[in-house]
Specification:
Two copies of one chain form a homodimer. Chain A has about 325 residues and is an alpha+beta fold. Chain A folds into two domains: about 5-140, 60s Ribosomal Protein L30, Chain: A (2-Layer Sandwich), CATH 3.30.1330; about 145-305, PurM-like C-terminal domain (Phosphoribosyl-aminoimidazole Synthetase, Chain A, domain 2, Alpha-Beta Complex). Chain A contains ten helices and eleven strands. The longest helix of chain A has 19 residues, at about 55-75. The two termini of chain A are about 35 Å apart. Chains A, B: This is Thiamine-monophosphate kinase.
Chain lengths: ~325, ~325
């Protein structure tokens, strides 16, 4: 087994692009920028955000994907990232697979690793990624720009990641007959989410507000509405879902699609007269975009079915890592960022 | 007990300075910069980098200080930071004290918190800070600029933090009579290190290379020499130490001063004809700077005593979090970054 510095060197040292100073000094140096630098940071904790036996390649992908998704939600172009690794042991095969998944996604987005920190942990693996992107400040997709009359859109399909997580957790009440087949159909959404970076860039100057769905559609849309001082009407039956989620009984379908976290799709708003341009932007980004409601004046999120009737028993509004009432420690749950 | 978002809001939401977008969107936005952006990231793990019962105010200070120290070693001016917190519970008093120590130092350096991530951990507290600074790329103090004939300098005094840590760990062999008195005299260096940001700025255009001492003088100076392709001669008895360390038997004094980590002083090199300007820069920064040796052509670090004789039994060259030989898990040990 090699020493720490040798392991870092072997798996994580890459040549920095021109204009940057990468791994190997007290700080990395990012090139001067005429645009604003978008910054997002995420902690991923074993047993909380991923299973101890997760495929390390998938973990490498996902740990960067959730950060790229934050850049996407801001309309920012990825420029670089730094990585913190707290590891219980130096496992060469694990590090190699983790780095493989990480760099494959980083390379696909032209987002080099420029620095990091590795330390030993006596209590499981913790990953910390801070990512940088570039966006003209006035083009950034903030949460606060939604206006009454705007359409509400969502990219991709919702619910698969939540359904897969429930099956992996062995929740007995999930109403599917062939659990293995449904898991096989949905697991990729949980473990290999595709950050919608190209869509975020295409929505610059077009979307009035945007957020990525990490905690569930209702909660994350709620953040847009709160920041924008608006309410909304959402048609639950318009929310796009996969065949696996569509096959669930209606309450379960809504639970996964409206409340399920870890989706990493974009929820965004745009003026109604921009529908054709939004559709064109989504097509250029290679992802579906579906209209699911409208921003309204006032407060409150009204969720209705296809017949316009209020939907009962909505999923709880997101997950709070520190519930205010005492209770048994939760198991593996979606993250809050 | 309040929920997570309420706790974050209460303790960690500050108004971002003009030109920045702070906590509350998918990303923070840093203003465009004509200079390079220096970036450093550190993970601090409970039981590894700090004791479970550490004063949370001191932890707040130190968790930011170690990152500011990386900026200092680069000659960068702090601009902002982001914070990741993995916590076993939401303890209002702990968070309040932690935030108090953190923001007191952040405010002293004009370095606002602009974003973060909070999550629950089932296994102790982990802190992740990524800090940003500003420096013209050509003025950055890199490790690679030392040249034969340059003086080697160190700021402040070395050894106190290492001695305090050994006493807190209860190492029985530390040869001090009044352990409580010595701990009282040295503990502040361990828990409240002062990052040498002003010195780093004053050394722009003056120092040929710099590093901050986190792993011990010999190891960190070794990084400068390796990056610069040089060797050096170091006079062990010229390394400045406090009265507490000076009172130790000589081998212990050298162990603490040459091998002790967590010092967060700057080790730097500068041309011999710049001695007066270095002294002036240190005086302006309000910290002592002491010449301790000279860079030489070739490889290797020769450590001698005041009489010019080689020093035997040098402290091991720094700590490797993942030793290549199996052994009992180490306890609390200095970090590697």
């Amino acid at each position: 087994m090699a020493g720490e510095f040798e392991l870092i060197r072997r798996h994580f040292t890459r040549t920095a692009p021109a204009g940057m100073l990468g791994v190997g000094d007290d700080c990395a140096l990012l090139a001067p920028s005429a645009e604003a630098t978008a910054v997002s940071t995420d902690l991923l904790v074993e047993g909380r955000h991923f299973f101890p036996d997760v495929d390390p390649r998938a973990l490498g992908h996902k740990s960067l994907a959730v950060n790229l998704s934050d850049l996407a939600a801001m309309g920012a172009k990825p420029t670089a990232f730094v990585l913190g690794l707290a590891l219980p042991r130096a496992d060469d095969a694990w590090l190699s697979a983790y780095a493989g998944g990480l760099f494959a996604l980083a390379d696909a987005h032209g987002c080099p690793l420029v620095g990091g920190d590795t330390t030993r942990s006596d209590a499981g693996t913790t990953l910390s990624i801070t990512i940088f992107g570039s966006v003209p400040a006035r083009a950034a997709l903030r949460r606060s720009g939604a206006r009454p009359g705007d359409d509400i859109w969502v990219s991709g399909m919702l619910g698969d990641a939540d359904l897969a997580l429930r099956l992996l957790l062995g929740e007995p009440e999930v109403p599917v007959a062939d659990r293995a087949a449904v898991l096989a159909a949905t697991r990729r959404a949980l473990e290999w989410p595709e950050p919608r970076v190209a869509l975020g860039l295409a929505l610059r100057g077009l979307a009035s507000a945007a957020i990525d769905i990490s905690d569930g559609l209702l909660q994350d849309l709620g953040h847009i509405l709160a920041a924008s001082g608006c309410g909304a009407r959402l048609c639950a039956d318009d929310v796009p879902v996969s065949p696996a989620v569509a096959a669930l009984p209606v309450p379960w379908r809504r639970r996964c699609a409206l409340g399920g976290g870890d989706a990493y799709e974009l929820c965004f708003t745009a003026p109604a007269d921009a529908r054709a341009r939004v559709a064109d932007a989504a097509a250029r980004a290679g992802v579906a975009a579906t209209r699911i409601g409208a921003v309204q004046a006032g407060a409150g999120l009204r969720v209705v079915d296809a017949g316009g009737n209020p939907v009962p028993d909505l999923p709880r509004a997101g997950f709070d890592h520190f519930p205010s009432t005492a209770g048994p420690a939760a198991g593996l749950l979606p993250e809050t960022t």
